[in-house]
Specification:
277 residues; mainly alpha; two-stranded antiparallel sheet; 11 helices; 62% helix
């Protein structure tokens, strides 16, 4: 495929380029949506910025956890040979880690700004699969996260790193990209029917978790962690689905996510007298 793309004067990672395009598209799409629903976009833009800052950190961290024995060997280079340390920790990401990092970024945003970010994060949840569409296209270009061997439906990843060039593999990345786009449309057009503030996130957890669990059976890459009969991502999917159902059932005032997204000061905390006083 095309792991790097040549631009005037330099080469850049095709995966990195696609994630940057994904971020830009999400910012634009949410700006348009906020204009349509006639809401102030400033808070949402800041929230997205925090989410995108924390997402890659979570993706890298979870990847390193999946290869913990190797990671422990390279930690010693932090003080002896930083170039070797940096090289090891500068590659490899796991999507679910990025998802958890994104959610953590929203929590941090609410705490830093003492804000009630529940409504804005409900809108943010809609754009998560849209961003993931571009991430999976980046995976396809880079030649990572490929599917199992298939003579009939497979493609050859000629220029990819660590992939046999003479074997056709299912372009499972593109299947997942298409699935994510469908999930985005479902979340977008059902958003106004949500009864709970975290219903959108719950729908995403259930639908994507189910899709990811199934697609993992068609993956062919080995660097993704296998625990018993399932991969790391399949185990996470199995956990994510009931959490999604919980987001449908739990009332906003009791929802674990809502509590961490609502850090706005109350009237008493601000020392503002009641209207009757």
């Amino acid at each position: 495929m095309y792991p790097t793309i040549k631009l005037p004067g330099r080469e850049i990672s095709s995966y990195g380029l696609m994630t940057m395009i994904g971020m830009i598209v999400v910012f634009i799409a949410m700006g348009i949506r906020y204009k349509i629903i006639k809401k102030n976009y400033n808070a949402e833009a800041f929230l997205l910025a925090f989410c995108f800052m924390f997402s890659p950190l979570g993706a890298i961290l979870l990847y390193q956890l999946t290869i913990m024995p190797t990671t422990l060997k390279y930690i010693k280079y932090l003080f002896t040979d930083f170039a070797v340390f940096k090289e090891h920790f500068s590659f490899g990401m796991v999507y679910y880690g990025g998802l958890f990092g994104l959610i953590a970024g929203a929590f941090v945003y609410a705490k830093v700004f003492k804000a009630d970010a529940r409504d804005d994060f409900s809108e943010t949840a809609v754009c998560i699969p849209l961003f993931h569409v571009f991430g999976r296209i980046g995976c396809f270009l880079a030649g990572c996260c490929y599917g199992m061997e298939s003579e009939r439906f497979g493609v050859f990843f000629k220029n990819a790193v660590n992939v046999p060039h003479d074997i056709p593999y299912l372009p499972i990345q593109l299947y997942e990209a298409a699935g994510n786009f469908v999930i985005f449309l479902i979340l977008l057009f059902t958003q106004k029917y949500n009864r709970r503030k975290m219903s959108g996130l719950g729908k995403y957890f259930v639908i994507y978790g189910t899709m990811r669990f199934v697609l993992e059976f068609f993956r062919g890459d080995e660097v993704r962690g296998i625990w018993g009969p399932f991969s790391t991502s399949q185990w996470i999917s199995l956990i994510l689905i009931p959490i999604g159902i919980y987001c449908f059932i739990a009332k906003d005032e009791n929802n674990w996510f809502c509590k961490r997204l609502n850090k706005a000061k109350t009237v008493e905390e601000k020392n503002i007298p009641d209207a009757d006083e």
